[in-house]
Specification:
Elements lengths: L1 E5 L9 H9 L2 E5 L9 H8 L4 E3 L1 H5 L2 H5 L5 E5 L7 H13 L3 E4 L4 H4 L14 E3 L10 H11 L4 E5 L5 H14 L7 E5 L7 E5 L13 E5 L5 H10 L2
Parallel strand pairs: 1-4, 1-5, 2-3, 2-4, 6-7
Antiparallel strand pairs: 7-10, 8-9, 8-10
Amino acid sequence: MLYLIGLGLNIDGISKFGLEVAKRCKRIYLETYTVDFPYAKEELQELINKKIIPADREKVENLGLVDEAKKMDVALLIYGSPLFATTHIALIQEAKVSGIRYKVIYNASVFDAIAETGLQLYKFGKIASMPGWKTNYEPTSFIKTIKDNQKINAHSLILVDIGLEFKDALNQLKIVTKNFNLKLNKIIVCSRLGTKHSGIFYDNLDNLNNLKVQKPYCIIIPSKLHFIEKEILEGLEK
């Protein structure tokens, strides 16, 4: 049987049921390619008290986990919510096609936690992804998502690539908004939401430049604010 187990947002976030299931699985994988963990993976292994095998994108996407689940109970531990990434949904579909039983054990995700900013969740539009730029590879598609959201007065959540430093992400955002003639007012930066080291910052791009932000983090581009949203965000500046 194949189990997709959400870890939540901190080391203690895994549910009691998820922990029980993981402990009885013959093989346990940890998905490592979608997020910078806010804690050491060794801490998780100590919590479960079983060997945990890191699983990169290739390991998950080649669907070999489904083949293993034909012979034994296999768990894939996933930071946040198990089905936030489409790759994990593909695992479920492959399990269905192969006649393999599966179970999803849900948990909190960053999309739950960003409500702490005071922004109303139903007012968010499409989620944008910001890849890290490399030589001859500077994708800008995330700006189109932001523009589309702003047309309907929707807030934009930007998820950044694993390994992308905050200063680099901020620089990319500055360059793209300038090139695409998009004026930004104040933005929100969320760091390590759901942990004891969480931080929410609300300011303009230049003032955020010297901010020390711990991974994982995300960026939010607010759109038209309800007066309650505005009041809560202004409280962050004090």
